[in-house]
Recover the amino acids of this structure.
C-alpha cells in the first residue's frame, strides 16, 4: 500500500520538475534540469577542505599505480572535451550554492577498468548537511524489475540495449553548477602541480536526485510521441537498460533503428545491443554491439547464443568464518527475483531465522550446532546451475486459450506458491513456471493461527496477490486464473455461507474472487516450496513445468468433486437480501447527514441501520459483531444513490461527462480508456453532485487520508474513484473556506497568519521641527 505522504511529495516534485525542465527545442542542445533543492539548502557548506583532503588521499593511492592514474586523468580530460565538465576560471566568484564533491576510484576486479565515484553524501561533521541532504530524492519511476523479466519470457525474439552514460546526457542549469564542483590537478603525476577547480555541466552519478532526473527526462521524451515503440520502451526500461521483445523476426532490425532514432532526438545514444538472434546482430554496427556470448539481463545471467537463463548458487568457501554477516552475504549473492530457486533457497531462509533467534552479533561466530547445519546445507546445495529457456515456448504463443494455474501449499515452517503459465502454441499446450515464492511462517503469528489449515488459507490468500500481480504484468489475454490447494478444509470454508471466524472470514472474502480446485498433495508442485530441496534434486521434480496432466486438455485432468466456483457461490445469495436492500435504500433520506461531519461515521451508522432492519425483518435476535466490509460498501452505495437522486445531473452534464447508469443504478461518467483495460474506478468514476453534503464529506475524508495535502493532490486522489463537477473549486471551498462548516481546522491552524502589526506611533518632535542652532 502506498504511503499518502510519499504520494504527496512525489506529486509536488513532479510538478516542480515539469515547470523547470527545458527541452532540446528550447535549449538548442539537450534536455536541461535544475537541482531540486529542499529546506536544508541554506545550510549547505562548501566542503572545500574535505574535498582537498580526500583528493590528496586519492592521488597518493593512484600514484602507486601509474596505469590507474593515467586512466583516471584520461576520463577527466575526455569529460572536458565532451563538455560534460568545465573548468571554473574564478573559484572565488560568489554563487548561490558553492559546494565541492570528493571523488575516488573504483576498480573492477575482472577487467581492471576504473570508474570515478563522486561522494555527494560527504560532510565534515555529523551535524553538517551534505549535498544529498540538501536535495530532494524525487519520485521513484523505476518499472517493476520482476515484471520486465516476466515479459521477456513471453516474446519469441528479444533485443536489449542501454543508454550510453545516461546521466551525463542531461544538462544542469547554469545557476546550479557551482554546487557540483570538484578538484583535480593539471598534472596529476607531478606532486607540485597546481590544483584546478572543475564543475559539472551535466547530471553526475552519485547525486541523490540523478535517478529521478533520468527517469523523468526519459518519460517526458517518450510521452511526446505515441508510437508503439515508445510505449514498449516506457513499459520495459529499467534505469538505462532497454528491453524490447517481438514475435516477428523481421521486426528486430526495425526496432534497432527506431531505438536509435527516438533517443537521438534527446541527444542520447543507445549502444551495447544484444539479441537472441544472430541475424540481427550481424546487421548492427560493431560500435553498437554488446557481448552476445554471455551477459546479465537485469541481474540474471543470460546466454543469448543459447537463449537461456542460468541461475547458480555461489560456492561456500570452507575457510570462511561462519558469522551472521557472512551467511547473509552468501544467501544474498543469489539473485532470483522470479523465485525459480525458491525450494533451493528455503533451507537457507529457515537457518537464517534460527541464527536470528540466537541474537548473536554480526561478526560473532554462530553456535557449533548451527554451523554444522550450515555446512551440511551448503554441501547439499552444490550442483550444476539451473538453466531454463528464456522464452516460455519455442513457438509463438497464441492470443487465445492462455491461463494462469497457481498452486499454494503450507507446512509448519513455510508457505509456498508456484504460478504456471499454461499457453497454446499452435496445436501444442505448454506449461512453464512463471513466478514462485517461499515464505517463512513468522514467529510473531499466534499459535492459534499456526494450524496447517489456516496456514494453507494464508498461502492461498498470497496466491491471489500473485494472481493480481501477474495479470497486470503479462502481455497476454488470459482465459482464466485458476487457484489450486490440497487443503479440503480451506475449500469448505470458501463454500460456506455462514459467518466464519474473523481470521478465516477476512481471508476467505479475498480468495472468493477466484475459482479454487483441490489437488492431491503428492501432485501439488507448491509442496516443494514448503519443505525445500537441492540443486540436483529439483531437476527431477515437477517444479519447473507443473503436473504432467496440466499440458493435456481439461477433459483429461483428474476429476475432483471438491472445488469452489465463484459463479455458484453468487447464485447461493438469497433473493430476500436483494429485495430488502431495495426496500431500505428508498428510505435512506431518513438518515440525517447534518448530525456528523465524518464520511466514515455516516457510513457506519447507515450500515448498522441496514443490519438492524435486516434482523428485524428476519425476526432474529440482535447480534453484536464488527461491521463487515460488504456492509460498509452497501451503505456507501445507498448514500451515493440517494444524493444522485436528490441532485440529478442536468442535460449538459450528462452530455459532456457521458453519464450512464450501471447495473447497480449508480450514475457513472464514461471515460475513454476502455481499450486499455483501465481500472473501472478510474475509467468510469462515480458522479458526485457538487452541492450535496455527502460530496463535501467525501472530499474532506480524502483530504485527511492524504495527510492534509493541497487541492491538486486531493483532486488527483478523488478522481481515482469519483467525478465532481468544478471539482477544484469545490475542494477549495470545502477544505479551506472557513464559512463552510466542514472546513479543515487542522489546516486552518497551520496556515494562520501572524498578528497584524499595530498602527505606528506619531513621529517624535525632533523629526518634524527644524533643528535649533546652538548658542554659547
Amino acid at each position: 500500500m502506498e504511503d499518502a505522504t510519499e504520494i504527496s511529495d512525489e506529486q509536488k516534485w513532479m510538478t516542480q520538475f515539469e515547470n523547470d525542465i527545458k527541452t532540446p527545442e528550447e535549449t538548442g542542445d539537450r534536455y536541461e534540469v535544475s537541482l531540486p533543492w529542499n529546506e536544508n539548502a541554506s545550510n549547505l557548506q562548501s566542503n572545500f577542505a574535505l574535498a582537498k583532503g580526500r583528493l590528496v588521499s586519492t592521488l597518493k593511492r593512484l600514484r602507486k599505480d601509474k596505469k590507474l592514474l593515467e586512466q583516471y586523468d584520461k576520463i577527466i580530460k575526455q569529460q572536458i572535451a565532451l563538455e560534460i565538465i568545465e573548468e571554473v576560471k574564478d573559484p572565488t566568484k560568489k554563487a548561490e550554492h558553492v559546494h565541492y564533491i570528493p571523488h575516488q576510484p573504483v576498480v573492477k576486479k575482472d577487467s581492471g577498468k576504473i570508474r570515478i565515484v563522486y561522494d555527494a553524501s560527504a560532510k565534515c561533521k555529523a551535524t553538517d548537511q551534505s549535498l544529498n541532504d540538501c536535495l530532494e530524492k524525487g519520485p521513484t519511476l523505476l518499472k517493476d524489475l520482476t515484471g520486465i523479466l516476466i515479459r521477456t519470457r513471453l516474446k519469441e525474439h528479444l533485443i536489449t540495449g542501454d543508454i550510453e552514460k545516461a546521466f551525463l546526457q542531461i544538462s544542469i542549469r547554469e545557476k546550479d553548477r557551482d554546487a557540483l564542483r570538484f578538484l583535480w590537478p593539471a598534472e596529476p603525476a607531478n606532486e607540485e602541480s597546481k590544483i584546478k577547480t572543475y564543475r559539472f555541466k551535466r547530471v553526475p552519478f552519485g547525486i541523490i536526485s540523478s535517478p529521478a532526473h533520468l527517469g523523468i527526462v526519459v518519460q517526458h521524451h517518450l510521452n511526446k510521441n505515441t508510437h508503439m515503440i515508445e510505449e514498449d520502451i516506457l513499459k520495459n526500461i529499467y534505469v538505462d537498460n532497454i528491453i524490447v521483445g517481438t514475435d516477428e523476426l523481421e521486426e528486430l532490425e526495425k526496432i534497432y533503428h527506431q531505438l536509435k532514432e527516438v533517443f537521438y532526438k534527446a541527444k542520447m545514444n543507445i549502444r551495447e545491443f544484444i539479441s537472441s538472434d544472430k541475424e540481427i546482430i550481424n546487421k548492427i554496427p560493431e560500435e553498437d554491439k554488446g557481448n552476445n556470448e554471455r551477459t546479465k539481463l537485469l541481474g540474471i545471467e543470460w546466454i543469448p547464443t543459447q537463449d537461456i537463463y542460468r541461475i547458480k548458487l555461489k560456492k561456500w568457501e570452507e575457510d570462511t568464518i561462519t558469522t551472521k554477516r557472512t551467511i547473509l552475504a552468501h544467501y544474498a549473492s543469489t539473485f532470483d527475483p522470479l523465485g525459480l530457486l525458491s525450494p533451493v533457497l528455503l533451507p537457507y531462509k529457515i537457518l537464517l531465522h534460527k541464527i536470528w533467534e540466537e541474537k548473536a552479533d554480526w561478526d560473532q561466530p554462530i553456535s557449533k550446532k548451527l554451523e554444522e547445519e550450515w555446512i551440511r546445507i551448503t554441501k547439499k546445495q552444490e550442483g550444476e546451475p539451473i538453466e531454463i529457456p528464456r522464452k516460455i515456448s519455442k513457438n509463438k504463443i497464441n492470443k487465445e486459450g492462455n491461463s494462469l494455474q497457481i498452486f499454494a501449499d503450507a507446512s509448519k515452517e513455510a508457505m509456498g506458491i508456484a504460478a504456471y503459465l499454461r499457453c497454446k502454441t499452435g496445436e501444442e499446450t505448454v506449461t512453464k513456471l512463471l513466478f514462485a515464492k517461499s515464505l517463512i511462517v513468522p514467529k510473531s503469528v499466534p499459535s492459534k493461527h499456526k494450524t496447517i489449515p489456516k496456514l494453507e488459507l494464508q498461502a492461498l490468500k498470497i496466491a491471489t496477490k500473485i494472481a493480481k500481480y501477474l495479470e497486470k504484468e503479462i502481455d497476454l489475454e488470459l482465459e482464466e486464473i485458476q487457484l489450486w490447494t490440497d487443503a479440503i478444509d480451506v475449500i469448505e470454508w470458501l463454500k460456506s455461507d455462514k459467518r466464519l471466524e474473523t481470521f478465516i472470514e477476512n481471508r476467505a472474502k479475498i480468495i472468493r474472487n477466484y475459482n479454487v480446485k483441490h489437488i492431491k498433495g503428492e501432485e501439488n508442485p507448491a509442496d516443494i516450496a514448503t519443505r525445500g530441496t537441492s540443486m540436483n534434486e529439483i531437476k527431477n521434480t515437477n517444479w519447473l513445468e507443473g503436473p504432467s496432466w496440466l499440458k493435456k486438455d481439461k477433459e483429461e485432468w483428474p476429476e475432483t468433486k471438491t472445488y469452489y466456483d465463484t459463479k455458484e457461490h453468487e447464485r447461493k445469495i438469497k433473493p430476500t437480501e436483494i429485495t430488502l436492500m431495495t426496500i431500505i435504500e428508498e428510505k435512506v433520506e431518513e438518515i440525517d447527514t447534518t448530525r456528523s461531519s465524518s464520511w466514515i461515521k455516516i457510513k457506519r451508522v447507515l450500515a448498522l441501520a441496514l443490519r438492524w432492519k435486516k434482523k428485524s425483518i428476519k425476526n432474529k435476535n440482535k447480534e453484536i459483531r464488527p461491521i463487515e466490509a460488504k456492509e460498509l460498501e452497501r451503505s456507501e452505495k445507498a448514500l451515493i444513490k440517494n444524493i444522485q437522486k436528490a441532485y440529478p445531473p442536468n442535460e449538459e452534464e450528462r452530455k459532456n461527462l457521458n453519464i450512464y447508469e450501471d447495473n447497480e443504478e449508480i450514475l457513472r461518467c464514461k471515460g475513454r480508456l476502455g481499450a486499455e483495460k483501465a481500472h473501472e474506478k478510474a475509467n468510469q468514476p462515480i458522479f458526485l453532485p457538487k452541492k450535496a453534503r455527502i460530496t463535501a464529506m467525501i472530499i474532506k475524508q480524502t483530504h485527511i487520508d492524504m495527510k492534509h495535502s493541497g487541492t491538486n493532490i486531493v483532486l488527483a486522489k478523488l478522481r481515482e474513484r469519483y467525478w465532481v463537477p468544478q471539482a477544484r473549486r469545490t475542494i477549495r471551498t470545502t477544505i479551506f473556506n472557513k464559512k463552510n462548516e466542514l472546513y479543515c481546522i487542522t489546516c486552518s491552524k497551520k496556515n494562520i497568519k501572524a498578528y497584524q502589526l499595530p498602527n505606528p506611533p506619531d513621529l517624535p518632535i525632533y523629526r518634524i521641527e527644524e533643528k535649533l542652532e546652538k548658542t554659547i
